[in-house]
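Example 5.3 — Na P-type atpase
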Amino acid sequence: MPPPRRLAPLEVTKDGKDILSLLRIGSKSKGGHLGLPTPKAPGRSPSVKTWGSDTTASGSSDGRATTPRPMPVPEHEEMVQVKVQKATSVLEFTGMLMAAPYMIKGDDVVAFYKANLQEGLTSQEADRRRGLCGKNTLKGRRSLHPIFLFIHHLFNFMTLILFIAFALALAVSEYLMASVLGVVILVNAVIGFTQAYSSEKTIKALRRLSSPNARVLRDGHLQHLNADLLVPGDVIYLDTGDQIPADCRLVTCVAFASDEGLLTGESHVVNKNEHILSHCHRGLEPTLMERKNMAFFGCVVARGRATGVVVATGMHTELGKVAHSIGERPAGRTQLQKQLEKLALGLFLFALVLGVVVWAANGFEADYETILYATALAVAMIPESLVSVVTLTMAIGVKRLAAANTFVRRLTALEALGTVTDICSDKTGTLTLSKMVAADIWLPRDAKVFVTGHGLEPVGAMFVSGREGNMMALEKLSSVSFMPALSALIKVSSLCNSSTLVECDGEWYGVGDATEVALTVLAKKARLGTS
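Solution (predicted structure tokens):
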């Protein structure tokens, strides 16, 4: 069947800022995604609809819209002409595409983003698009400058009371008391600032370590670039074990599957393909798992390889939308902070009342001794060491949690954690490790084989049960060669496998599908694994 013929553009304005884009929507979609009419019969031209146009399609003299001349349309698809406004921002690559990338053909996505599957983008074009779309990074809460961070811990409601007492002590020439209060205020601020600044440095280091690299086609050459430099329209290559650096529309796939547990919470991998989605379930937008022709930022390639065109970067990705929704939540105060503020306010008011009582008892005469006595009484009501004790206690708790590989960003969050009674958590990756190991082997007409070992470490032993069904009579296998069925099974498990094992700092990690990783570990335990 010959390729469908594209319609000629209706109009282009003189300044060249308006452009016409052609999108092809399958006839079975019923125009649901764009809200466009479907032709009633094959061979008839659908009505042409334009967006953002202030002129008529036919250019009639009276200004009334007229029906364009019918044009032949192939039976298998509907040709729709859409007028869009050329943007000078990120909308040029995210908003002008009237249909979602997973709802149109891969070739149309490549053409829209002006990508080149053989040459890729040029460096100049990539820089221009990066200027419009920004870097491919997730924006979190902006960290405070160290000076402002110190001021934040120096001035709060509890220390405000200490500052008032400090000023009163200076006013009555109680320099020793003022010095003690000043040291308490400074020590409390230094402890809080040190912990917060250390946490900010740790977060920045983790972000640098977690920034993945990407294999990108640029200037006709395959380059390994930092994922921050990706832009919409880049052609990237994905292989087993790679972290997907941006949301991309897949154009070629070879046994490709990705682990999308980061976004969906599902432990099983999702098989992918490059085909267009044929329909939407009950007319609703497809879920992330239903978008089989998309690969999402932050997920990991479980197996296979693929080529994709980047369609969204940074905060415009699906992971970026999640980060944006989390960042919108304000950092509330913990219950301990609220109680300490109430205590400080109550003590301050009580100290004022006592001061008035002392002043009234002296006949409302403001002599030096009366002011000194009232000030001393007010300062005595304030627990100067309370703030320091609370801060030191939390700092010790943070150090103990750090020894257990738990990172605490804010001291006040530690108190909130201590009040938790129930935790509703995702199972995969939290309660379980999302890892599999081969523990038992059943062979036809042979005994059952038990496999020992710990985790993914390729060290263990195999025991075979008694051939007469006596499960207690175990015999350690020194070699699997004398059992042809077992030897063949392990060889097949090793050769028909795309996963690998990686050792890092004494820890073993599997790259690929969890089931294939378990078979790779089994083969290495039997000393039949591939190198």
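Remark. The chain has four domains: 1-86, 146-207+332-393, 230-326, 440-525.
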